[in-house]
Amino acid sequence: MRKKRSRLWQFWLPADLENKGTATMGERQKFLCGNAVSKGIAIAKAYRYEPLDLKVSKSKCDKEETEAECRRFQSAREQAKEELQTLYAALEEEHPDQAKIFVAHQEVLEDEEMTEETENVIKEDCLTAESAVDTIFNQYADLLKQVEDPLIAGRAADFLDVKARVLRLLLGKEEKRLDHFAEDVIVVAHDLLPSDTANLDRDHVKGLITEVGGSNSHCAILARSFSLPAILGAEDAMTQIQDGQDLILDGLTGQIWLDFSQEEKEQYEQKRQLWKKQIEEEQTYLLRPGATKDEVKIALGINVGSDAYDTAGAAYDFIGLFRTEFLYMENDHMPTEEEQFSVYRRILEGAKGKPVTLRTLDIGGDKTLPYFSLPKEDNPFLGERALRLCFSHMEIFETQMRAALRASVYGNLQIMFPMVGSMEDIRKAKEAVRKVMDALKQEGIAYDPKVKIGVMIEVPSLALQADLVAQEVDFASIGSNDLTQYVCAADRMNAAMEPYYQTYAPAMVRLLGFVFESFQKANKPISVCGEMAGNPKGAALLVGLGARKLSMNAAMLAAVKAELARHRIDELEKMAKTCQELCTEKEIKEQMEM
């Protein structure tokens, strides 16, 4: 169904730009491409940001000097905590959710085990304070970087940021800041740490460009919070862009224009003004409920990866995906029942009665734990991971279920199992939960006996029997990212497979329609929590296919609400039906531009 487009931006690159990092005109390079993580357009001169050199060689001290080195570490640690408190105070009033980033940084510094490890390597290995900090913090950051889940992997930046702060204080170097400019600039850097981004001069910094980073990094989250256009992952940006060079940053398509005419600049200025007007319109939807133009209610939730999550200041109906992996990845030991209970309780109380869907432990694949040995497999993504791994180590699963069930009395908890491949898996997991409930009852420990049990539908074998699954569970959530890679047989983390990993593949669209129909017939709730749900056009297609619950990155709530409010439900259903009859993803994308 085609209409004149009311939106200005495309949610995929034009065909001639797709998968290209640069474009040239003669001998001159015309533009770079990257990942547009915060929408908008900026026109200004480049400011190349080179961070302080904090490289540390592994230097040692004499045995009798180790106590003094420990005192140096403790002093720098206390100074760093004071700086973080100042950063928090500066952000807290205007951006309370983003300010929590620096609460998390303080918690890193206050972590007793990490502090003890740092002091131990000073005392036992006779390392200087700088070398010890560099060693221990890098170990934690490297562990998180291994994780496939970008939300958890992105938390490595927290450890690197705190490490840089402590090292700077130990080395006695003055902080390099981005908080004062005399003219408008677009900051260009290899990477920006959370504290770099939080300190920006928001009057004069008009955009951000980095060579690394993703949409779930703190840099991206802060940029979206500040409504600052940002393109991350722009390879060779520091090589290709000169200090003071005129730039156009197109955060709608991911293009960075390096060479342009006055006419092109004027066209972009007009586009910038139109985009500004559109964003002002979208912001009016922030606190509105999700609904179509004819007021069909669509429940919109958020996905969170820690207990300090970002709501983007928007109204949301539920937490559709609480990833519990961060608890395991950020520890050097298997989290105890009490440690887990404390975090789950905090999340439930913070949700103030809104449903919270806790996804049970999902490790395996590329998610490893240094304190837990996983079997070596040729195809780990098709091997012993998530629920399958828990079945082999029931003590881990039972500990998590005890903690979750105990926390259930503090809010509206739902428990969801990932990587379920069969009805046998569902029944086995449900039986394990029942046994934990029986044990808690015998011990006289309170829990909510009406906790809803559901599954992630991300394995094709489960999706294809959705009609049977709907009879067995209380609810389900479609993990569109993994389901897509399994349906398309294309690793979504492998750049070479990008042409084969098709979010809107005809097979996916048809399969999704069958899953929604199956759950509707059973009168059971089903949501979608993958990237498709957070894409305005993708959300519109999902609603047309039958979805009435979508969960996404909180930063996308306003845009999704605005998109859904532009269409009647019958228009979306007609568009979705047509998409189910098409043969290629290209045709489906064209149809979605309604």
Descriptive labels:
Glucose Oxidase, domain 1, single chain, disordered N terminus, alpha/beta, eight-stranded parallel beta sheet, TIM Barrel, Enzyme I, Chain A, domain 2, nine-stranded mixed beta sheet, 3 domains, globular, 594 residues
Structure write-up:
Helix content is 45%, strand content 14%. By secondary structure, it is α/β, with parallel strands linked by helices. Helix 1 (66-92) packs across helix 6 (156-171) and helix 10 (262-283) packs across helix 21 (557-565). The protein has 23 helices and 17 strands. It has three domains: 22-51 and 177-261, Glucose Oxidase, domain 1; 63-171, Enzyme I, Chain A, domain 2, CATH 1.10.274.10; 299-568, Alpha-Beta Barrel (TIM Barrel), CATH 3.20.20.60.
